[in-house]
Amino acid sequence: MGRGKLRIYLGAAPGVGKTYAMLAEAHRRVERGTDCVVALVEHHGRSRTEVMLSGLEQIPRREVEYRGTAFTELDLDAVLARAPRVALVDELAHTNVPGVRNAKRWQDVEEMLAAGIDVVSTVNIQHLESLGDVVESITGVRQRETVPDEVVRRADQIELVDMSPQALRRRMAHGNIYQPDKVDAALSNYFRPGNLTALRELALLWVADRADEYLQQYRSEHRVSKIWGSRERIVVGLTGGPEGRTLIRRAARLAEKGAGGEVLAVYIARSDGLTSASPKELAVQRTLVEDLGGTFHHVLGEDIPAALLDFARGVNATQIVLGSSRRKAWQYVFGPGVGATVARESGADLDVHIVTHEEVAKGRGLPVARGARLGRSRIVWGWFTGIGGPVLLTLLLSAVHLGLANDVLLYLALTVAAALLGGLYPALASAAVGSLLLNWFFTPPVNRITIADPRNILALAIFVGVALSVASVVDLAARRTHQAARLRAESEILSFLAGDVLRGETSLETLLERVRETFGMESAALLEREGDVAPWTCAGRAGSGPPVDRPEDADVDMPVGDHMALALTGRVLPAEDRRVLAAFAAQAAVVLDRRRLREEADRARALAEGNRIRTALLAAVSHDLRTPLAGIKAAVTSLRSDDVAWSEEDRAELLEGIEEGADRLDHLVGNLLDMSRLQTGTVTPLIREIDVDEVAPMALGGVPEGSAELDIPETLPMVAVDAGLLERAMANLVENAVKYSPAGRAVLVAASALADRVEVRVVDRGPGVPDEAKDRIFEPFQRYGDAPRGAGVGLGLAVARGFAEAMGGTLNAEDTPGGGLTMVLTLRAVARPAPAPHPATAERQAAG
C-alpha cells in the first residue's frame, strides 16, 4: 500500500470553523461510502461541533496518567490496527502528554500516512514554526506548540477556513467559541480586531505562497510558457550601472500597489557583449533589493532581451522595469536597444516600464542584442559590403576613370570595410569578387581574364594579401574579444558564487537553485554513491524537472570526484559553459561536506556535553551521594548493634540523622533526574492558569521553618505555568538562598505584577555573586566560591532556569541592595477579565 494523503484545514485563529469543516467533509465521505473514522477531535464544548460528531465512528482515546492526573490522547496503535481509509485528527500541532510513543501529534499523523491511511487534520497559522516570532510580536503570546512548516507544506491539499475578524468576534461574544466567563478576557486580549486582522493576513499570504508553488510546478510539468497574471511579479533589469537603485525603488513602489507583489532583480551576464558592470555597484543593489523584500538573480545569457524575457516568463512575471538607455544618440545606429526590443517582443501579457533616470544618454546601458561574436547585423552588413560593394564600386568606376592604382586602393578599402564589419569570410568574399572585377574591367587587356603587364599581377597579389591579412586580424581580434568577455562573465558568476559563500548562503538547496537559475535549467541535483557499483542517491535537489536517478539520464552531468556528480535537466549546455558549471559542482561538493561535518560536529558536541555531564555525575556519586549514604549506613548499623544499649534520646538522634540523610539523597537524586530530563529535552510542561500564592507555600517545605518569608499579594494576576515545574524551580531557588544566607536573616520571597508578566523575587543577604559570575552559576555542576562538597552537586539553579524557560519564563540573578543576591523569576501573566458592574450601576449607566 502506498503512502496516505494529507489534507489540512488551515485557519487564522481558534473558532474560525476548521474542525466543523473537517467534520462536514467526513460526513460527505461517509455518504459516499468511504471508510472514515474520528481518530481524535476536540470540540471544546462547542455544541455545533459536538453535534457534527454524531454518525461518525470514533476510536476510543488512550488514557495517560501524568503527575497524578489522567489525560486522554490519540490512540495511535488502535488507529493503525483499525486501518481505516480516512482518519480525522484534530490540532496537528498538539504536544502529547509524556508517556505516549511520539512527542508531537504530527508525528502520529506521519505514522498513519506511512501506513497508507489518508488523514484530514487542522492547524492554526500561529502554530507554524517559522511564524512563531511574527505571531509573538503581534499578539504578545509565544506559541509553545508548533509544527514544522515542511510538514504542512507536504500536505496534498491545504484548505483555508477564513472568517472576518468582525464575524469571529461576534461568534466569540455569542459564546460559540469559549465559555462565557472567558469571553471578555479573550475579546480584550488575543481576539482584538488588530490581532485577528494581522493573523488573517498571515494565513492568506501563507496559503497564497503555497498556491504559487503549486502553480509553478504545474506550469513546469505542462510546459506552460504563457504568463498567467495570478500575482504581481515585477522583474527589474539591472545593468550594473548607478541607475539600478532608482529602478529597484520604482519597482518596489509598483509592488506595494498590489497585494502580495514581488520584486525580482536580475542581472544578465553576457559572454559576447562589452558591458561595464561594477561588482561593487551590483553588491549595493543586491543589498537594496533584499532590504526591500525582493530577491536578486544572476543569469548567463547570450541575447540580453531574450534572456530577460525568458527569465520573466519562467517566474510568471507580470511586469518588467527597465531604465532608459544610457547610450548616446549615435549609438542607436547599431540597433534599437534592449528596452525597445523587450517592449516589442514582450507580447500582450507582459507590461514593460521604461523608467527615466539621471544617467540617461550619459553612456552605454544594456548592450544591444547580438547572437554571434560580431553581431548578426554586422555580419549581414559585412556580407553585403563584401559582395554587393565591389559590384556597385565597379559601376561607379566604369563611369569615372581614376587609374588602375586608385581603383585597386578603392577595392582594398572596400575589402577592409567588409572585414571590419563581418570578419574573415565576408572579407575573403570581397577580395575574391574585387580581384575578379579588377581583372575583368580595369586590368589590360580589359574584358579578359588574362593580365598583360606583370606589374598588374603584383598589384592584384598585394591587394589579395592585404585583404586577407586585415580580415584575419579583425577575426582574431573578434575572437579575443569574445574570449575576454566570456572570461569576464564567468568571473562575475564566480564572484557572486563566492559572495554567497561569504554571506553564509551555503545551503545545498540554495546553491543548486542558483545553478538551475544561472544556466536556465529545469532542475539541478547532486548525486552521489558509496562505490563504483553502488546505486546513486540524491543528496540535494532544486527545480521541478523530471527526477534523475543516474547522471547518464540527465541532459548535463558534471563529475565531482569519483563518486559524485552534478546532474541538470532542461537542455544541453555548450562546452564553454561547463567550466563555470565545474566550479559550481565543486562548490556543491564542498557545501555537502561542510554540512555533514557540521552535523558530525554537533553530534560530537552533544557527546562531549554528555560525557561532561556523566563525568560530573560520577564525581557527584563518588562523593556527594556517598556522604549521606555513609551517614545513613552508620546510623542504621548503630541502631542494629546489640552491644550498645541506646537511650531514647540517642535513638531519636540517630533516626533524625537517617531522615536528614534520606532527605538529602532525595533532593540530590531529584535534581540529577531533572537535569537529565532537561539535557534530553523531555521536559514537556502542562501549562495551566494558577495563582502564585497557591504554589509558593509548597516550595518552602524543604527549608527550616522561619528561614523564609512570603510577600505575595492576593491581587496578583494568575500566571500561565506548569504548577509542578514552578514549585520545583521556586524550591531550588529558596533552598539555594537559605544555604548562603547568614544565620538569623530570613530569605524573602516576594512577587509583583509588571505589565504582562509577574516577577517572583527570592532575596537573600548572603555574600552575593560578582557580575562576571552571574551567568556561570546557572550552568550544571557549578558551586560558587568555596562551597563544601556536601553542599550539593550544583544543579539546583540550572534546573530552576531550565524549568523557567520550559514554561516560557526567564530566570536571572541581580544584586540585592545592601548586599546579597536576588533571583528574579519572570512568568507570563494571564489577563483577568474586567469585573462586571453592579446591577444598580449598570442601570444608571443605561439610563444616562
TrEMBL record:
<dbReference type="InterPro" id="IPR003594">
    <property type="entry name" value="HATPase_dom"/>
</dbReference>
<keyword id="KW-0418">Kinase</keyword>
<dbReference type="GO" id="GO:0016301">
    <property type="term" value="F:kinase activity"/>
</dbReference>
<keyword id="KW-1133">Transmembrane helix</keyword>
<feature type="transmembrane region" description="Helical">
    <location>
        <begin position="380"/>
        <end position="402"/>
    </location>
</feature>
<dbReference type="InterPro" id="IPR003661">
    <property type="entry name" value="HisK_dim/P_dom"/>
</dbReference>
<dbReference type="InterPro" id="IPR005467">
    <property type="entry name" value="His_kinase_dom"/>
</dbReference>
<feature type="transmembrane region" description="Helical">
    <location>
        <begin position="457"/>
        <end position="478"/>
    </location>
</feature>
<keyword id="KW-0472">Membrane</keyword>
<keyword id="KW-0067">ATP-binding</keyword>
<keyword id="KW-0547">Nucleotide-binding</keyword>
<dbReference type="InterPro" id="IPR025201">
    <property type="entry name" value="KdpD_TM"/>
</dbReference>
<dbReference type="InterPro" id="IPR052023">
    <property type="entry name" value="Histidine_kinase_KdpD"/>
</dbReference>
<dbReference type="Pfam" id="PF13493">
    <property type="entry name" value="DUF4118"/>
</dbReference>
<keyword id="KW-0812">Transmembrane</keyword>
<dbReference type="InterPro" id="IPR036097">
    <property type="entry name" value="HisK_dim/P_sf"/>
</dbReference>
<feature type="domain" description="Histidine kinase">
    <location>
        <begin position="620"/>
        <end position="831"/>
    </location>
</feature>
<keyword id="KW-0902">Two-component regulatory system</keyword>
<keyword id="KW-0597">Phosphoprotein</keyword>
<dbReference type="Pfam" id="PF00582">
    <property type="entry name" value="Usp"/>
</dbReference>
<dbReference type="Pfam" id="PF00512">
    <property type="entry name" value="HisKA"/>
</dbReference>
<dbReference type="InterPro" id="IPR004358">
    <property type="entry name" value="Sig_transdc_His_kin-like_C"/>
</dbReference>
<feature type="transmembrane region" description="Helical">
    <location>
        <begin position="409"/>
        <end position="437"/>
    </location>
</feature>
<dbReference type="InterPro" id="IPR027417">
    <property type="entry name" value="P-loop_NTPase"/>
</dbReference>
<dbReference type="InterPro" id="IPR014729">
    <property type="entry name" value="Rossmann-like_a/b/a_fold"/>
</dbReference>
<dbReference type="InterPro" id="IPR003852">
    <property type="entry name" value="Sig_transdc_His_kinase_KdpD_N"/>
</dbReference>
<keyword id="KW-0808">Transferase</keyword>
<dbReference type="InterPro" id="IPR038318">
    <property type="entry name" value="KdpD_sf"/>
</dbReference>
<protein>
    <recommendedName>
        <fullName>histidine kinase</fullName>
        <ecNumber>2.7.13.3</ecNumber>
    </recommendedName>
</protein>
<dbReference type="InterPro" id="IPR006016">
    <property type="entry name" value="UspA"/>
</dbReference>
<dbReference type="Pfam" id="PF02702">
    <property type="entry name" value="KdpD"/>
</dbReference>
<dbReference type="Pfam" id="PF02518">
    <property type="entry name" value="HATPase_c"/>
</dbReference>
<dbReference type="InterPro" id="IPR036890">
    <property type="entry name" value="HATPase_C_sf"/>
</dbReference>
